[in-house]
Amino acid sequence: MPRDPEAMQAGTLSRRAVLRGGAAVLGGLFIGIELPAGRARADEPQAAGAALSAFVHVPAQGRVSLIMPAVEMGQGVYTSQAMCMAEELDVGLDQIEAIHAPPDREHYGHPIFYVQATGGSTTTMAWTEPLRRAGATARAMLVAAAAAEWSVPTSELVTARGVITHPGSGRAQRYGDVADRAARMPTPADVPLKSPEQFRLIGTRARRIDTPDKVVGKAVYGIDVRLPGMTFAALTASPVLGGKVEHVDEAPALAMPGVRQVVVLDDIVAVVADNTWIAEQALRALDIAWSPGANAALDQAQLWADTETAATGPGVTVRKEGDATGKLAAGALVEAAYELPFLAHTSLETQNCTLHVHDGACEIWVGTQVPGYAQAGAAQVLGIPPEKVTVHNHLIGGGFGGRLEAGPIVTATRIAQKVAGPVKVIWSREQDIRQDMFRPLYHNRLKARIENDRITAWHHRVTGPSILARWLPPAFKDGIDSDAIDGAAEPPYALGDMLVEYVRHENGVPFSFWRGVGPNSTVFSVESFLDLIARKSGADPVALRRGLLQKNPRARAVLDAAAAKAGWGTPLAASAFGARRGRGVALMHAFGSLLACVAEVAVTDGGDVRVTKVVVAADIGRIINPDTVVAQVEGGVVFGIATVLHNRITFAGGRVEQTNFNDYRLLRINEMPTIEVELMASTEKSGGIGEPGTVIVQPAVANAVFAATGVQLTRMPLDASLIARSV
Amino acid sequence: MTAISVNRKTYEINATEDTPLLWVLRDELGLTGTKFGCGIAQCGVCTVHVDGMAVRSCQMPVGTVGERAITTIEGVGETSAGARVQKAWLDLEVVQCGYCQPGQIMSAAALLAANPDPDDEAIDAAMAGNLCRCGTYVRIRQGIKHAARS
Q: Which fold has domain A222-293+353-426?
């Protein structure tokens, strides 16, 4: 957790960090890390030219450098951030170069979270205005420099594609011609921004700036870094969670050609070799005796049972309106509990980190969502000031929350500390899963009172750990984790008297953020429960929801759009996959966005489920790049289908039972549904879209399975044996 | 010492013959466009062409390559199918994080070279071994059809 005095200013954080609507999500902070206070050394590639601000550098010749405060991990933010700056700066996306921001909270700290992190589907909502302002301010400085040179009023100058023109005299010069003088001018305050009807870039289908290098193998991810004299390290942790090294005979590894060194830490054994393959083979040749420690008896059934027990214990009140408890005691009750499993991140780029520790300094090459924590974590391990640690950030081969933690970078630093020269530490897939910090177990108990086919009282109790309490204590207020209860505290519906409670329960398994965060558990539970109520009261699931949305026309419009596009109520065509067919609906309001989803499934007699079609309608406010928004919904839906159909991490004897993609299944192209996305025109404030697709499809699929089979499963993922025809 | 041909260039290799081609490409030759993802041929991010056939390089000992021609993502743009797939991937904005896409493109290019007009079933059969965690499959399918028409 941060012990940074600034970060602990609760007044700042309570305002900036604890936003409603899923925004209270940011980078995991490694316990005990102190954040650096000042500016760090510059990153590579260097921003070129005259610095007009921390975000815009204009060189005499060539492309304008735009420095990207939020990292690119596939979600398209290098393009959308560049669009915001380029829009106001009046340059084309073909005239800019995107530069990874260095660790520097002063300039690149998240406007909502304060710390430097990319996550929580917040980049657009947090950075759009600051980056537009940066572009507009830089443009104003360039125009002022040209106006001074030509002795004309700035109002007579026009700009387009990096050229300043004075139409009256026909004079023109490029931004690069005046950049040096512009950089020496005072920075103007309150430069006006364009009105939306003046936009030339924002709202258009802009081509992504990061993808051309990615299709030809030129893009450099952290795992691709190469340095002269570099060695390669493979590592293993104890099979039992938290186990320690008891004894290891290094000889079998050291005897292998190409092996340089065995590094033994209290909890990690690593082999350093001439290439990754040798390092991995030598690691396997070692017979390591582990001391299993306190978790030797950790067992999945017990973990579920402990969570359920905790869910009956004392909790804190998140929201209370009317007398839900009294009404619920009066009868006509529907009640259910929904349980969500541990999940691994499994980005295809496994965890990796390249370091060179030398002469009281450290260089790090890595792709991270939290460059400041990377720097701070390494500095703390090495006992050197943060400014002695240079972080070269890279493109990320899948984030999903898995690179919001400094943990792997800290582990790699502890290894590199003992290695002469640069070393690339690569996690095997098996170690990437075993050493992950998982999406935690969540338990949701819901009760509702139904009177005359109306919901008149609602009780939702969320049980799970607090990620926020671990790394941002000021955001954990009054015993409430605002992420864990997001989606439960303010569902879009009118549900009568309300009681929402939170029970903080932690079980010793490492946990962290995971695509969709708190709403993955709360929205799943609310939407499943509504379908249970619909089933018990004989109501149509869409009609039931519409009835609860009379005071929320924006949400109802989204629901109606999805239902209409999906042909809700029309017969389902036969499927070759399975005879039992069903359609399910779900609605959410989180991350500042409203989404509705209709999923269609086919279920075999054996209980196997195939999702055949998914329709999503989304009102996410004003959109920067619509094609990227559609791509994020499509990808999020695929991610969510794998989750609800296949994914769980389980423990037996303290060991993670899953090892690789053979037993932690991702969705494959042959299992794909058709996916249709409708974006609603909206001028509301921009919401986030990196995570909602993952959240919304899971209950829609589960509800479709309920419709197809008559069985509502309450512990995820879907268990074929419980919906087989014979059951 | 082994010699292999990669992207029409011959390389002398120091690695032992049992070393998977993947690690020779990445660690020794510096051709890092070919990715590591699972090490057990479950994800396909390491896919290269061996005489035009899509092969998981994590499972191919470099000593078994022999005279056969290796093509990687860095070289596949020199082939008609590879260039069309790469262009289609940009035209349709298939790519998100992009880490799996070298493998997707290599599998798609091998498919198109063998089957100029694949239907959905053929696409499923050729591409089911390539995982994408970002979930770009909708556009991968569209991209292959777009490349086939181009």
A: Aldehyde Oxidoreductase; domain 4 (3.30.365)
